[in-house]
Amino acid sequence: MHAAGPHAHHGPYPEHAVGAWPAGVAYPPVEPDRFTRLVLRLHARAPRWAVPLAALGCVGLGMAYALLSDPTHSDPDARPTCLLKLTTGLDCPGCGGTRALWYVLHADLPAAARHHFLFVFSLPFLAWLFVSWAGNRAFGWRLPELRISPRVIGGFLALWLAFSVARNLPWAPFTSLYV
After folding, report:
1. 95 and 116 in contact (C-beta within 8 Å)?
2. Using CB atoms within 10 A as the burial measure, which of 20, 81, 97, 159 is most buried?
3. What confidence tens digit (pLDDT) does each residue in 45-62 have?
């Protein structure tokens, strides 16, 4: 009898080690369902500008909602409302975003920043990312790309998390962040 170490292989081949894929085994491709096939056919037949136009339409619908609902004059419990704010009384990470968008659309940037500073700060970057992506996708434009490193994205998300926590703290100066 021999002593088996912690890395000993107990199968006839070394690839039978725990966590290893068997060598030479080909798995059959998964057949897409009917809905997936439909979406893939529509995507293959759609003109180059269809996806950017659809994305622009979604952004336009969001802007129209913000303009028509006038979130600056609605009651705090008016529908639709934030589920987190309704159940806990806390501001969620996006609380104030619709009001900030309403103020941006009315060119009142100080009021927009008061309701959600990080949203207003990120708008120029998001707009450039969309324009460069949509221009490339729809018209083949090669605009300068905005390269954002994972470290910068992580820093922004950490800042957003800290902002979300700070705006819910019950003492000054954090109470000025309530929306």
Report:
1. yes
2. 97
3. 989 888 899 999 999 998
